[in-house]
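Design request, tokens follow.
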């Protein structure tokens, strides 16, 4: 099932994508798509809905983040071999973990506003996952059973704040709008292999990133298990799992986002995003 939320910011309603690719409204049945709806029994109840009987949402209606109420937004750095190489960094022996503020979460096509005086705002397409059931010290073998589904994510990053402002990476990762998610949450049963998803990002029509999650250093299962050893993962938590090679910082000379740029992301079954940079 592909779950989504539609409507103006702060006024989103729950919905789902039907077999014909049309957005259906679920607000007559549930109040919103929240962490409690990530539980397996809740997802099973949603999957049983006859979407053809649900109201259609008008074409062109804004899509918001596919869930609300996320309490933890966790991210991995340098989790693709080729990205670590282009960054001039050694291949990590353990996942590099940082956080993004939940306040940066945005819809898939929302405008991205450059921070004041920003000279180094960068793009990063990523595979995101949403936790369905609490995970605490779980094994790699059991880790995927705690995943409710997957989302396309854009880990927008202001590199000066990230690297030059004497602090952790989340300084450059948490500006408002720096965490577009969606357009929908694809439940785990529809993703045969999360390590075989193609990811492509373009800026003004020029392909910058074109890779596959097969290049990950630490798999989704490894990541969930690893994180759960030192933090309890809660239903609705979002984990984004690193970006492939092709970021602006890795270019010679570096290239960053400018006013008027248009960024597009494609994650296959995960859907697509389009953002205007202002």
């Amino acid at each position: 099932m592909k779950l989504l939320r539609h409507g103006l910011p702060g006024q989103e309603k729950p919905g789902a994508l039907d077999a014909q690719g049309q957005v259906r409204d679920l607000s007559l049945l549930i109040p919103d798509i929240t962490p409690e709806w990530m539980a397996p029994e809740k997802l099973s109840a949603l999957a049983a809905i006859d979407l053809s009987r649900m109201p259609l949402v008008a074409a062109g209606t804004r899509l918001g983040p596919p869930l609300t109420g996320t309490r933890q937004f966790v991210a991995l750095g340098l989790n693709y071999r080729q990205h670590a190489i282009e960054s001039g960094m050694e291949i990590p022996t353990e996942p590099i973990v940082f956080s993004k503020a939940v306040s940066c979460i945005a819809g898939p096509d929302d405008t991205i506003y450059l921070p004041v005086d920003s000279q180094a705002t960068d793009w990063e397409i990523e595979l995101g996952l949403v936790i369905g059931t609490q995970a605490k010290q779980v094994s790699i073998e059991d880790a995927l059973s705690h995943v409710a589904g997957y989302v396309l994510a854009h880990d927008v990053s202001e590199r000066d704040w990230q690297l030059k402002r004497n602090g952790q990476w989340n300084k450059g990762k948490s500006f408002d709008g720096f965490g577009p998610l969606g357009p929908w949450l694809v439940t785990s049963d529809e993703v045969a292999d999360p390590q075989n998803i193609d990811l492509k990002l373009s800026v003004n029509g020029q392909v910058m990133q074109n890779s596959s999650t097969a290049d990950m250093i630490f798999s989704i299962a490894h990541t969930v298990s690893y994180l759960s050893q030192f933090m309890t993962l809660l239903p609705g938590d979002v984990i984004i799992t690193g970006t492939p090679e092709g970021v602006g910082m890795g270019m010679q000379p570096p290239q960053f986002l400018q006013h008027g740029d248009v960024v597009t992301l494609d994650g296959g079954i995960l859907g697509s995003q389009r953002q205007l940079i202002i």
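Comment from the thread starter after seeing the answer: thanks! The chain is about 15% helix and 25% strand.
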